[in-house]
Each structure stands twice: as C-alpha cells, then as structure tokens.
Amino acid sequence: MKKADVKVGAILAGKSEEELKKPFQGKVEKIYENSALLAITSYDPVDETAISDLNHKIVVNFKNLKTARVAKNSKTAATNEVKVEKVKSAVKKQDEEDSKDKK
C-alpha cells in the first residue's frame, strides 16, 4: 500500500513479521513517512498476549498494510459503544416495579 492511500481513521488489515503471528485489523491513528500507527481493533486470539503487551497499538510499514475485510475467527477489541436498548429495558423494568410497589 502507498502512503497516499492511507488515511487517518481508516480501518486497514496488517501483518507484523516480528510482533504478531497472525494478521490483524486496526484503525489508522497517525501516518509517518514509511509507516502508520494503528490502534488494533480485531485480531486472532493466538496473539492476545502480544496485543496486550503492545497496548493495542502497533506501527506498521505501508508494505504490510492492505484494505481490510471482515476477519473470521478473530477477537474484536473492546469499544466504547453503549447499548441504549439494554439501558432502556432496565429503566422500563424498574418503572414497572415502582408502579407495582405504589399500588
């Protein structure tokens, strides 16, 4: 992959010949002259310890990057997404219990 093809925020597939045994996916956080800093978002469970040691970040040479596809049998790193449905159902359940208590 060429530097011009790499954009901050893009999800790319990568491989690391030294650090990780299997390919992974990551979100581009910073672009350097010949490489990019990726926040690892999806990886093979066999690399879990190494990913943790890297704090879910890795610098990868452009030649080891390509456009990402959905990975099978991979572990997805935690995200900060909040599931609103769960919150709503918990609030609704509490409201129902409060209504029963008032009767």
UniProtKB/TrEMBL annotation:
Residue ranges with Basic and acidic residues bias: 82-103
Name the UniProt record assigns to this protein: DUF2187 domain-containing protein
Organism for this UniProt entry: Lactobacillus hamsteri DSM 5661 = JCM 6256
Chain positions covered by the region annotation Disordered: 73-103
